[in-house]
Automatic annotation (TrEMBL):
<feature type="domain" description="N-acetylmuramoyl-L-alanine amidase">
    <location>
        <begin position="72"/>
        <end position="201"/>
    </location>
</feature>
<dbReference type="Pfam" id="PF01510">
    <property type="entry name" value="Amidase_2"/>
</dbReference>
<dbReference type="InterPro" id="IPR002502">
    <property type="entry name" value="Amidase_domain"/>
</dbReference>
<dbReference type="InterPro" id="IPR036505">
    <property type="entry name" value="Amidase/PGRP_sf"/>
</dbReference>
<protein>
    <recommendedName>
        <fullName>N-acetylmuramoyl-L-alanine amidase</fullName>
        <ecNumber>3.5.1.28</ecNumber>
    </recommendedName>
</protein>
<keyword id="KW-0961">Cell wall biogenesis/degradation</keyword>
<keyword id="KW-0378">Hydrolase</keyword>
<dbReference type="GO" id="GO:0071555">
    <property type="term" value="P:cell wall organization"/>
</dbReference>
<dbReference type="GO" id="GO:0009254">
    <property type="term" value="P:peptidoglycan turnover"/>
</dbReference>
<dbReference type="InterPro" id="IPR051206">
    <property type="entry name" value="NAMLAA_amidase_2"/>
</dbReference>
<dbReference type="GO" id="GO:0008745">
    <property type="term" value="F:N-acetylmuramoyl-L-alanine amidase activity"/>
</dbReference>
<dbReference type="GO" id="GO:0009253">
    <property type="term" value="P:peptidoglycan catabolic process"/>
</dbReference>
Amino acid sequence: MGARWASRDGDRRIGRRALLVGGAAVAAGTAVLARDELSGLWWRAPGVAKPRKEGEVDYAGARWVAASDSNWRRADRPDDYGIDMVIVHVTQGSFAGAVRAFQNPAHQAATHYIVGRDGRVTQMIRELDVAYHAGNRSYNERSIGIEHEGFVDRPEDFTDAMYAASARLTAGICARYDIPVDREHIIGHVEVPGTDHTDPGPHWDWDRYLRLVRRAATKPA
């Protein structure tokens, strides 16, 4: 997430441009939305609603707490947008603080998951939906975002329990979407083009993390 908790990006433009759909501007042919943007608006059409169960999670070890719907965009991934990436974030704050921020509609950002120092996992957005977390619309559409409780300049925040829980979570995501377990597909927020964030920072042990993800992937479910 980074120090300023700011991840607004082009996803917000979809909401504003969607107001033109069904209006006089469309009838007159003066507004044109790209095909990929229109595909993301399927759920706005009358009578179309993908069945969802309240409180359902994608990762069995997670507890569900819903983010504000101002902080994500409803989608039908991977059918409308393929998922090929996991993005690692650090909250720059507490677990509870991250949950509160993602429940706040004014925050305008959230990740799919938060992992605590103690290894607990909370899911706040369904994987099939697009979370506003990367600060880059294309990366948001193709990725799952995972926050980790702590601060980038405090290596002690990255506990054994956190690494293990996050690795199990990421291994499951990679298995569901056939994502390679490597540094091209599991990246830090700092590596997203156009971002000004620095997380997960220099103390995040990527070699250790990828080893744990690979190990978790080989264990029976």
